[in-house]
Fold these 4 entries.
Entry 1:
Amino acid sequence: MTERALADINWLSIVVWLPIAAALAVMAIPAAQTRAIKMVANAAMIVSFVTTLPLALAYDRSLGGIQFIEDATWIPSIGARYALGVDGISIALIVLTALLGAVACCSAYNAVSKREKEFYVFLLLMQATTIGVFASMDLFLFYVFWEVSLVPMYFLIAIWGGERRLYAAIKFFLFTLVGSVIMLLSILKLYAITIDPATIANLSSVQAAAKTLCGSNAAMQSLVDGAVASMRAGDGTFGLPALHAIGGARLVTGAALIPLTVQIWLFAGFFAGFAFKVPMFPFHTWLPDAHVEAPTAGSVILAGVLLKLGGYGFARISLPVLPDASRNSDVLTVVVTLAIVGIIYGALCSLYHVATLGDMKKLVAYSSVSHMGMVVLGLFALNPNGISGATLQMVNHGISTSGLFLIVGILYERRHTRIISEYGGLSAVTPGLAFVFLIIVLSSIGLPLLNGFIGEFLILRGAFEANPWWAAAGVLGIVLGAAYTLWLYQRLMFGKVEREVNQALPDLSRREWGYMLPLVVLAFWIGIYPKPVLDLFERPAQMLAYQVWHQPGVEDRYAATPEAQEKLARERAARSAAVVPAIDPATFGPEQPVEAAPSGTSRPLSPQPDAATPAEPKPTPGPAPGGNRP
Amino acid sequence: MIRLAWLILLLPLAGAALLGAIGRRLGERAVRALAIGSVALAFVLSVSVVFDYVTNHHGEHAGESAAVSVGTEFPASFDWIPGGAARTSGPGDAGVPVAGGLSVRWSYAVDALTCVMLLVVTGVGLLIHIFATGYMKGDGGYARFFAYLNLFMFSMLVLVLAANFPVLFVGWEGVGLCSYLLIGFWYERDAASDAAKKAFVANRIGDAGFLLGIFGAFAVFGSLDFSAIGKALSDGTVPPDLLGQWGVLTLIALGLFVGVAGKSAQIPLFVWLPDAMQGPTPVSALIHAATMVTAGIYLMARVSALFMAAPSAMVVVACVGAATALVAGLSAMAQDDIKKVLAYSTVSQLGLMALACGAGAFGSAIFHVMTHAFFKALLFLGAGAIIIALHHEQSLRKMGGLARRMPVVCATMCVGALAIAGVPPMSGFFSKDAMLLGVLESTVLPLELRVALFFIGLVVAGLTAFYTTRLIGMAFFVSGEKGSFAHSDAEAPGHGDHQSGPLAVSKAMTAPLVVLAALSIVGGFFDVGHWLGIGAPAEHGGLLVPALASFTAISGIALGWWLTVARPASGRSIAARLGPIRVAASNAFGFDGFARIFAIGTTLSLARAAMLADAEVVDRAVNSTASGTVNGAIGSNWTDAHIVDGVVRGTGDVTFSGSLIVRAVQTGKFAAAALVLAIAVAAVVLAFGWNALAAVLGHWFGGGQ
């Protein structure tokens, strides 16, 4: 099946809505027939997973861009449309979501023994809404799915959670809601920009930017054309590709269509939404509580999928829609500092929990803070390696951290405790579990030939390119990660079995093997032959780096036009041959004050000497017609 | 034949996979056949690859350097980490010209250096596998042990066959993992699993530096292929500002050296190696003496061109190496555990090799890697034979008089001792001589440093002779007057009858000893140092250095023999008089304690501080904000609860999850949550600053009119 054929039969809608249909089917079954409910839910999850595979297989990697596009009128008065579409990044996350959904569903088979019907309904709703977020190409639709996805998770924690489940559930709900409501402000402002006469007067620059983004992807181009038409009619748009074009649009003066100050405010709003979700330090305190109280299946989805919404939001919205803000050195300093603090801080907190023989789930939760900090570091390296590494690491984190939560769940089902000191020496009793656990642990600490290494390697390499100190800070997280993860493994698996009850612990059952094996196989596959997966991200990652950097007045670092390459080489030669020993060490940073560079396609014929440099704190609206408010 | 090189490493991998999957169901015989068979085949293949290389390829690049590798494309090469190719816009593409990032191909290279390492790894590995089948007999984890050991062979072969940094790093981490698994093989012993973790984390610290070095190398050279890096350096395409005293290349070399310090046990990261002796003795011989720990030396030789271009880094390497050699050599004299003596001896020898690398004598260092693999494996395996025969007794003080009871072991170990001491014409004499000469005639180090380091090297050679003689003397020749080993026998019931009779050592264990002894004797005649043609191999100078070295070795042996065997009483009194110095030496001069207290202690207190901050500052801020707003809202809570609740109640029945929502909302918390949310949003918005808000709102929504 080709991409076009699948798009014609609305395949993406099928992927999104199938879990909801399954949820309805589950609701139709009487609550007492728990076995039937479980069977239907599990089958639905597996079918849902299978439906996502054609996306990955049929995605046209050489075409790139947004594919499988569906576009239908939804709320015409505000230009909101039911627009779906995916690129390689979203496809990987959708397949991951569906896989973890099936795994979580299977893992709950015996673990959940009250109100099964509601449990599986919420699980399926969770699946649909998160896939919806990844598949939305309309910001309004995105926001709706984003908000609705909170609800099933709230109930999963609040009903099937541990002792302090209400506290944890409310904390989770409030935290992420605070973030997303602030994000809503930014969304509204973006919409206001699309109906701003100043924007409409400059639609040609938007169209020029869109043309570069869409290239020969006709479906994507027509999606943008529709949005532009809607803007011209004064209805505005929430269409994401159109917003990307607006973010990249340049006035004839070379100034950004959205001035830098506005971009930074918008960035701050989106940042609130995404940083709470990732979660980045210091917005993370909901995560340990939520994980500790959530049931295993909830933890799997929470760590494996929900946290990815934040990272995905950065990649889908912050970077491409707000490129000038994203590469602004002040913004970068704040974001990357928080990411690095998160990497080290999360690792230290994990270390504390294993040192004090505490709660395993807390440990894994804090390790998520550390790993997701790494993801943000990669994204904000703003280069192809960093971005594709970060995307891959989101998938990897979904595999390894979900795997860790599953193993904690397997132990919990047997002993009903998550305290590390209750275990020890299990290697001898449960060799199968010890093997699977070892693979997951090694994947989590980034051992080569397992998935974690590829992601971390690419992220750190990207970070090094952006700023060597970032990479130097990032590797600290790798060292600490090995320390706490191996220590955890040692404390659970090695030593003598000291507790009588542990002597007779059963090894993995066939069902447990069934849902752990896919994760193990994936860990090996991505570690040994990641090409199929990385190929998915190649174009989108390059495109993102391009969108962020390929603006007039910015050194053309990631657009390898021959002229740009030549210019870089010239500069480097000049620098090394300089007789004056004044080599500015700051030139290693991402921000470079650059003289007018004849590289971009949309450059004005006569470069303005005062062309806006990105680091400049004030916007330079420029004398564009209608550019100033009356 | 040479194109089959990739098969060499797949054989042990297949062995490991099979043993891991079905090994538990196989008998010991089948496990033995699989484990030895796969390594033996790998050895045979290696020999034929090396033969092919030597006859057909070696010297074909005579004009440039013998180190140029033969083709990096093997049938099993593939795009491992595609980083995205650079492309300009064209049809069928998104119309965007983009730059690529780092891409990594999984590729192998065979050159002279690889050949030497291939033979050492598979040859010594095979002998140790054979020995281990005897040593591990009857162990519950027999199959698991050989699965790990085969996996180790695979990783080590990846390491030596790699054509670029990332693939080498795979082997590098892989051997680290196997080391972890094998040190902690007897995982029920806490000391073993602690030592395993310590080894892995210490190596990880090194790897952090290694990774940064790799990224730096890519930033400078635009490639991670060894051949490309070597070519860029020899062509002089590296910008001059990257070279020089403390240029970028120095930083890269130092980053790599941090990795070397982790893997090859240099100060201050060497602390893991003595602890690693918790592993079974064949593991100590294979991984912690002959092969894995020399990976760092191999790495430096592999990128010798890079190190040669970074003279300041070379000074650091040489000095750290010399210090390591000295500290570990002194420590080895004060150990009573037979394996600890050998462990510190290994650290000391690795220090010498690093010293040679720092002096630019990379070829001599690899020469010593080879001879060291022979005699140190021999000494470890001999120690293993003793340990098994004495039922896991490792203390030298409880041994003695074993010469008569284990004649083969005694004879072979004496050969090993003479070799490591550097007595001519044993192998150790030649390689150590080459290294010392390399230091003295170094072209990269300043004169004073060369002389100083040479004398340190000489002292270390003397120490080596002394502590090895002490080991041999205490184990074999001191008369068992104290009867200690008799005690240990008596403690094991049913073995008392072995009191004075010969101790049984199986053929599987003696045969490798004999082969290794032969290699230790003749190994020195294969001077690979010159054959490799890397770095700046020293020309054979006059007789001064060999004469000095032999004199030191022989006097070390004489002194050792005199103090341990001939006059043990005076030896003991000297030891007693040394007092605190001896204690310090036996504790490796506090490096271990320093690591334990400073590094680990600091990290753990940081962890405690972080967690405290999390609970007391970050989370408390959140909770108190929440509770503050809830308290403030308590007045309106009643209304909210009733109104919202009522609405939900009314519609709840028709929604599928009605009952759930009602139940969750009954507490009123849901309503409170909504209220708290609204207030929290307001608070956050206010926190942005009232003035800013006003300004922004004007700017913000004003545009839409």
Entry 2:
Amino acid sequence: MTTDIQAPRSPYTRAPRKGGINWEKWGWIYMRVSGLILVVLIFGHLFVNLMVGEGVNALNFAFVAGKLSSPFWQVWDVVMLWLALIHGGNGMRTLVNDYATNARTRRILTGAILAAVVVLTVLGTLVVYTFDPCPAGQPADLLPLFCQAS
Amino acid sequence: MSTATMEKSAAPAAPESFTVTVIIRRFDPEVDDEPRWQDFDVEMFATDRVLDALHKIKWEQDGSLSFRRSCAHGICGSDAMRINGRNRLACKTLIKDLDITKPVYVEAIKGLPLEKDLIVDMEPFFESYREVQPFLVAASAPKEGKERIQNVAQRERFDDTTKCILCAACTSSCPVFWTDGQYFGPAAIVNAHRFIFDSRDDNAAVRLDILNDKEGVWRCRTTFNCSEACPRGIQVTQAIAEVKQAIMRGKP
């Protein structure tokens, strides 16, 4: 009887990672990059909304309507929305990977996070680009006062 | 037993001893279903270590207490345990550095299967250590009768990570490792770092690819528990970050 004795330092035998995009790596890089951009976007957002001019007292429907009619703030808000939602969703996915040991629970939870991120992103983007504070053909008593001015 | 030098230093005044309460998390798989805490009172001197307290308990009070220790001088790395909630080597933790007005809590390191008292199954830890190929792989042979030449700067590059004694204090302090035992863990990455940045080694690309896995370096959340736990003072989190950088560059 011969026994097959392996060399003391057997070479690495685990199946190598399949080709294609390495999502873990890009996910990690995304978290770092989006985090940096979000610091600027969110604090800029808070500063403009709460501190410039009259500060928090100026916040009302007209203020938001005015901001969303400017292309600059539209782009700012949409970029912030996308980066923040994907950043948060990816963070939640990491938590699920850490704590959900059952493969099925993991799939359900990650799927729920993905659905929430997609719904909120689409909804938010739609609001930013199609927001009209003075929709035509509405009774005047339902519209804000500044609509009558023009 | 005592040597001349010891008698001389002890001569002026007899050192003061005091009673320390040590509470140990015991587990005997043949008797217990669950681990239980048991307290012991031991007479200790300020210069004694936690390991000495464990010895006193085992030799004088309860012979069934099980723990690993080998060299007892912080080199072999076999007596890593959780002392007052922090991973330390029992042989490097002095009683005087702990708050002895309160009991000292000693338990096995977390995240690895508990076998008995302070002993855990280290196999999963060594498994991931083996997977990163912690040995020199060189493509070329050195000239006849010559060594592989390395300058001071090249040696300095990976000096920090050569200090690892594989005690598992870092890996078993990592919250990612506690919840997900598949993660390679800081110790394996430290030992990969030691060869990835070694100028004499030619297998860095393979090791980087192994650690570029789902369970590789990207699971690191930079909580710095490992750097804090390391009894050799290795900057573990920095080593992991350097491996991440190397993976992004594609070369060390």
Entry 3:
Amino acid sequence: MFPEQLNVPLGKWVNRFVDWLVVNYGDAFEAFADSLLTILVWLEQILRGTPWWIVVIAVAIIGFHASRNWKIAAGLAIAMVTIGSLGLWDKAMQTLALMIVATSLSVIIGVPVGIAMAMSNRLRAVMLPILDTMQTMPSFVYLIPALMLFGLGKVPAILATVIYAAPPVIRLTDLGIRLVDPEVLEASRSFGASRKQILWKVQLPLALPNIMAGINQTTMMSISMVVIASMIGARGLGEQVLMGIQRLDVGAGMEAGIAIVLLAVVFDRIGQAYGKRSHRSHKAEGKS
Amino acid sequence: MSYIEIRNIFKIFGPDPQTALKLAQDGADKDEILAKTGHTVGLHDVSLSVERGETFVVMGLSGSGKSTLIRHLNRLIDPTSGEVLFDGTDILAMSINELNAFRRKRLGMVFQRFGLLPHRSVIDNVGYGLEIQGIDRKPRENAARNWIERVGLAGYEDKFPDQLSGGMQQRVGLARALTTDPEVLLMDEAFSALDPLIRNDMQDELMKLQGELHKTIVFITHDLDEALELGDRIAILKDGKLIQVGRPEEIIMQPADAYVRAFTRDVNRSRVLRARTLMQPVANGCDVNAGWPRIAGNMRLEDILPVALATEGSMAVINDRQETVGILSKQQVIAALAA
């Protein structure tokens, strides 16, 4: 037996800290939650209000814009129609809205953090273990305080998704900037470029393929969070999976699972195609 | 005062350069300091001056500190101690904004592995310096186009660096450095990564451009032949220390020590030595036989040889203004070749 005298009451401390947060900053968290909720509800209404065929066409157009390939565009449209034909269109739109908000938030937070990490070795040393923790900590652990701070519903679902999904875009932004050829940076400095000019004209454009890969991974991870998010009251496809589990309705669960996979495929193909274009744009022009 | 002056530069790499600096200033050498403190001495008490309009070559093997030295001229590297004066201004005292303005307006740099921006076309690479200065797209592209043409790349404006050969990429690098019309061109092993034939082309191109532009050029190389070909004056570095500074003939004729002598042994002297180095100086007009062939003072030994073989007597050496400045005999030519 491990001696009891050496026990650290970490759990109690965390509880006291969360209580203190709720008592003192509850209003601030609520205000933040409200603004996030407003954006999410607005986006959800747009997606659910738009006729299904317009959404399908929009996905096809975006797919074509990303890949310049009609086959891919058509494939993505078929995937969307399949989701609809499984009777899950409305739920898919809810999930879509949740994902778009969570992914955007991840990118808005993740890219600047990644840039800062690339600029400072000290920050990087601090951030790496935090990122590891974010990715390996079971999500239920941080769902509990999120529930206490924000209540049941979509907002803690978004935050849990961001915590889980932001690390790849942070890591790959950092990596992409660090991989920029030092001689190119030196050349840029020798011409008198300021740090801001170097960042915008050299580092970010050259890191773009990696950043795009990070965004793609972040999107995939946020899709994989939809089931867990449904447990704390986020609606959408995850809810359907959960219902399938609770009622032992294998068929319903399978349908929802297929819809989630199809949604993931749509996002992945679009994200990868944009990533490839950021890689190859100049080569493609030259070879035409 | 010279145009660019470097005074007593020490550069020590490592976590605590000041301690190692004291040792270096007390005369400890590179290996000793590395053994005692784990610090690397990049430059050891280097003082140099570069005159306006000259091509100054810094020659040294890898690890000699030559690339570190050239980076002190635009403060890509700051010295551990010492001074760098540019036209009388202490560039080490500049704030970051002053330094950037100085780099934008007065310096251009060419890199060994080109340092081109892979995501930009040739014209956008060449216009980069002007873009940094905030010049509008139109005038920027006009200037860039002009220089692309002058370095012989007309028609390649919209290509990307990875579509060009090494020689062409370095022409882009050269055009990029020249587009801001800098006073000083810093060239860090600019031609070292190129094939020998292309390297010769680029050397000729640079000499041709320099004949028209009269920039001040500081050129780094590890290749003595290149140094002798391009340099008005040459500095030789070894282990961070300056061994010798002089005109190419001086380096060949009076090597400062065994190290330089070993270097110069295999040099083709007939390509380096010139009439004005070998001749016996005379006052204008005296002692010269009117029948002697007249040769220019900057003529190379290899070009003089056929003239010398064809003549019975000696040759008269003349300067730019067609005045006789010296006499060169057949025996002197042969002696110089045999040495």
Entry 4:
Amino acid sequence: MSADSQTTEDRPDEGAPPEDRWRRALREIVESSSMVVFMAIVASMIIGGVLIIFADEAVRESAAYFFSRPGDTFSAIGDALGSAYSSMFNGAVLNLEASSFAGVIKPLTQTLTMATPLIFAGLGLGIGFRAGLFNIGAQGQLLMGATFGAYIGFAFSLPAGLHLLLAVIGCAVGGALWGFIPGILKAKRGAHEVIVTIMLNYVALYLVAWLLSLDAFQREGSDNPISPFVAETAQYPKILGVQFNLHLGFLLALACAWGAWWLMERSTLGFRLRAVGANPSAARTAGMNIGTATIITMVIAGGLAGLAGSAPVLGTQKFLTDAVAGTLGFDAITVALLGRSRPLGIVLAAILFGGLQASGPSLQVNAGLPVDIVVVIQALIVLFIAAPPLVRAMFRLPAPAHEKEVAA
Amino acid sequence: MTAKGRHLMKNTIRVGAVAAISALALAACASAPEEETSSSATADTGAPAETVDFKACMVSDSGGFDDQSFNQSGYEGLTRAESELGIEIASAESSTEADFGPNIEAQVAAGCDLIITVGFLLSQATVDAALANPDVHFAIIDDLADNDFDGEIDAPNIKPITFETDEASFLAGYAASSVTGGTISTFGGMNIPSVTIFMDGYLAGANYYNDTNSADVKVLGWDGTDGQFTGDFSDQAKGKNVTETFLDQGADIVMPVAGPVGLGAAAAVESAGDAWLIGVDSDWTLTTDYADIIFTSVLKNIGNSVFDTISETIDAGFSTEPYVGTLENEGVGVADFAEGTVSDAVLTELDTIKAGIIDGSISVDLS
């Protein structure tokens, strides 16, 4: 960010909302160049590699006598990195050690399966970011979506097709409801969406924990907080046959990505949302209703996050627990930032993260590395994405032209 | 709560990395080992005389192996089996529930002979994997692997490992009742069976004391169906709050069944000065910094059960016979009582009660 961008941004507009600083940070992140994003991934992989080296026992042992026989250390480092990256590849892309064709491509399908909820939730967050809303509530929205969808899935018995449709709609409605609350609170009362969405994550978590203590949400004959199985009529069909986990939800996610692109780039509504995100005061002057735009954005974002909840309950796991959301809602924030809030970018970022997660079992079991390495790499990516000047300085990249235009 | 745990984990890793780098820099000056030892650097030079051709593997639930609770205890059993039995091990932590299936599949593919999964959340994933891989053996901790509730294990190659924890907490409840001024208390992390079984036994033990000694000891925090829960297994501040409330209501002994949340309870008890804490899962005089205020601990020896399951499978072959930890087989038990608290008369009574529970003449169920 250059000096004149500061002065432009700091000049108070009439009636400008007080979160200029948030908006500026958000816009900088969203508009960072693809080169910066790519380099951020490269940088985190390199640092991840350094951590893998230090986490390796053989390296540590041989490093103790580094100055007497450095060759040992280097070969240990080579072994550590080689086994780490090859098990990552075998776990996330193609398993070259498998005997059958299905076994070879299974990791790839697993990566896409893991990417599915991240695509949904990332799209929702991306729309919010571009409309200037820092929605941290994907976790709660996802959980509510999963709850609605799962309940429809296990409590009713309906014909195949219709049942799945209703369950999917249920997921979207549950999430949309959870997005509507912070939306209307911000539109009508100016409550900051960051605070409200974070708090609603907790409300959703404890609500689900409570629901799972009720007989209506528990399996017959068990007191464990675990719901009955979603009926087969409400499950996503597996699109590549039963030996792969990849389910229809992935195609639905791609369809949503196209829908989000159309909404933001081609529709009037999307134009309004983007205008509000770029400069709320100007949008208001142009006659746009900021409150309505906020509510619509949050409902769409929540609905998409809710659909993310359909991936576990209707696709992979097929029942509801209070841990069904894992850390998906937070990972999706990274995905949205990494994808620069654009649908195509989000799909690619989600597949990258899906791959990182899919490589976890293979990393742990075959390379003996802690799964935390994956988390660290993800965290480093966020860190670098959030600091474009740092990445540019590291790789001596010039400040991209379009950011100067924005600043001017 | 998971997210919070993750952040903590990331921080730990960062600090750890810095520490590791400095340690490496300092240690790099040591002299190289002799050629023959360095060539076999990975082989164990120490304890196990022979290596057994057996690979035992473990999958955690989303708590991870550093949860100070059942994942950790289970993992300790696995590593003990590695060092004492000379077997090969592998482990996989699940960060989300979506990892359960892939983690188990990765271990099947890695040639594990026995795969132990931790916790009822992995039940379905374990059953699915067991049905798909009939040649691989499985064991699951804290679950009966019976998801259709017909009383049968859902796959012919799963060994359930469960614990009659209420037998041990019955003794703790009885002993606590004998030393209290009139009110004892307990709370849990969540209202789930693996937690409330501790509280059931504790309450039943106190009721049994009241019946046999015509006393009137009150139990706060659990009435057999509902009670006091903190809602998670991570927030120590809640454990402290709940405990302070109990102490204000006149309780002088508290049993927290909530993993690390219990450390918050311990802090509250310590600052109160005139109260006692009952640890759970492991012996808290050894595993926490609060040895001075620990009345006793209700032991759930998950580590032993894992070790025994592995060693039995190696020696006698795999059996699906459920392992049930009881007072009789020392799968559960109570640790030594704090010195000077329980009278010799009560200690004798406890021995009688323990024998009664083992032979079935005393029921630990809540009547």
